[in-house]
Structures are given as C-alpha cells and as structure tokens.
Amino acid sequence: MALVLDVRDLRKAFRAPDGETIAIVDVPTFGLDEGAHVALRGSSGSGKTTLLHLIAGILQADGGQIRIDGRDMAALPEAGRDALRAERLGYIFQTFNLLQAFTALENVLLGMMFGRGADVARATALLTRVGLADRLHYRPRQLSVGQQQRVAVARALANHPRIVLADEPTGNLDLRHAREALGLIRDTCREQGAALLLVSHDEQVLAGFDTVVDLASINRAMAEAPTVERTQ
User: Fold this and answer.
1) Segments of 127-168 assigned E as strands
2) Taking the model in full, what pTM does it have?
3) pLDDT category, 220, cuts 50, 70, 90?
4) Domain that holds residue 12
C-alpha cells in the first residue's frame, strides 16, 4: 500500500525566554498508509500538536522532509504550504476554530475557498451527513459543543483531503458525545477515502484504534526532555 504521508528526519525547536534552544520534535521516520487510521498517543506538552502543525504546514520545520502524496511540505514557502494543505489535508482542531460570525454552512464553504472552490451542494451534503441538516444556518454560538464538533468534521472533509489530522478532537466532549464524535470522524473518513491521524492522551479513545503509536517511540526530542511526562 502506498504511503500518503512520509516523514523523514523532521526537526523543530523553539527558543526559551532564557535563550536556551529546546527541541520539541525530532522524528527520524514516520509514515501513514493510504486510507489508514492511526492514533498517536502523547501526554500534554509532549509535542504532538507541534507535530501535527508541522505536517499541516502551519509551522515551518527546521529541517527534514514531510512528503504528502510525494510533495514535500517542509520544502515549500508559506504560500505553497497553504496550497498543499488546502488540496490534500483536513484538520480537526480541539477548539474547533469555527468563525463565530458565520453559519455552519458558511464555515464549511469558507474552508472550501482555499481548495477547489465553494460547492454549496457538497457542503450541504456533508453537514447533512453529520446530522446537521436542520442547523445549516445556525451560527456556532447557537450550536451545542457536540454540534460545533460536527461542523468541524464537515469542514475538514470539504476539500476531498487525502489525510485528516485530528488534534484531541474529543477533548471538549463528555464521554457519550466523545464516542459519537470519534465514530463519526472515522466513519466519514472511510466514506471519503481519507487517511486519519488522530492524536490523543485519552486511553478510551486510543482503545478504539487497531494501530496506536506512542509519540515517545518516534520522537527523539522526548528522550532529551526529562521533565516531559511520558505515556508508556
């Protein structure tokens, strides 16, 4: 099976207020097969969000390669990273990042503007698929937390992504809604043919995945940071 994501020698460090350089990500190799669903285990502060932001091109790497369908995200300028992200990636943020002044439908359509262009029929179909057919014209503040999560899922899938990245997507939900959201994310990714890389520290979430990778096992930076709590 072909790799849709191929990470090699990926590095990212930040400078602390005292001037010390702190390595956050140092991943020799990591890959994601086409259509695969993989969970990445990591405790708070372990660098898992930074890793997702690097893969998505939100942050620029200090070195290494991030090949998405053969194109190296890490080698692109900001505009190129934005374009590749719009064409190939969907991102579900823990805090959803919905635009409060716009309706559910508009939030999905705005996400499409950076890819193939707005498609009202597809946006409506996706929102209907996630159970929001009667909430198309509601703004985020008029929706429950679980409903906002569903808008975020629809937006992430709007541009036919090859990969969906999910950063603690159930972190703001209670147990019942967390299970529903996780099932929805995985089902819709399968239906759309998208690979899924989900990061979490919740063992109940991780238990639903056949493939779980411990961030500590792939990130050499964690071995150099003894103050970071590790999940074995």
Assistant:
1) 163-167
2) 0.89
3) very high
4) 3-223
